[in-house]
Amino acid sequence: MKKSFLLYAFILLVLINVFTYSFLSNEVKFEQNRYEKTTKRLRDSLNSVTAQLNDANYFSLEHNENAQNYFDSALANKTIAYEKLIPIVTEKLMDFNANSKGNPYTGQDQIGENKFVINKVKVLNHRWIIADYSDGKIWGEVLLKYFVNEDETISFEVIQSLLYAK
User: Is the dihedral of CA 90, 63, 84, 49 positive or negative?
Assistant: First the structure.
């Protein structure tokens, strides 16, 4: 009786160990597969977002080598680093927001109580800027030309401006 009990207990322990080993090894395989699928999905998402960002930045001075070369060409009297130029141009344009009648480079006269000010600026290339402006109620966009003068001042010219309907 004692031998049969020990035999049954031994067989039971062996079966428990086999099932435990089987369960844990399958769990490891499951986790590895889940990790691989998640990693693949994240890589695909990252590649998709990177492609969208590259598309969105296609028209920008930071990614336009031809426009960058305009400031670097041998024909130019001086070389301007576009990395430094972008914040300078943006700052100069935003400085006009302090004007009492609003920023003159929105292409709009003051309509209501509030003046039009430029909110966001994107330097497209060596010549053009697109900007978003508003008076708090009415929003619009403006396309500007900018020039770097010989004395390193920046001048602007409105090409086209539009207001969105309320």
Answer: positive
Q: pLDDT per residue over 105-142, tens digit each?
A: 998 888 888 899 999 999 998 899 999 999 988 999 99
Cβ–Cβ under 8 Å, residues 142 and 105: yes
Q: What is the DSSP string of 122-151?
A: EE-SSSEEEEEEESSS-EEEEEEEEEE-TT
Token pair of 146 as six digits:
């900018």
Name 123's bridge partners: 129
d(CA 162, CA 157): 15
* Contact (Cβ atoms closer than 8 angstroms) between residue 140 and residue 110: no
Q: What is the pTM of this model?
A: 0.68
Intervals of the chain under pLDDT 50: none
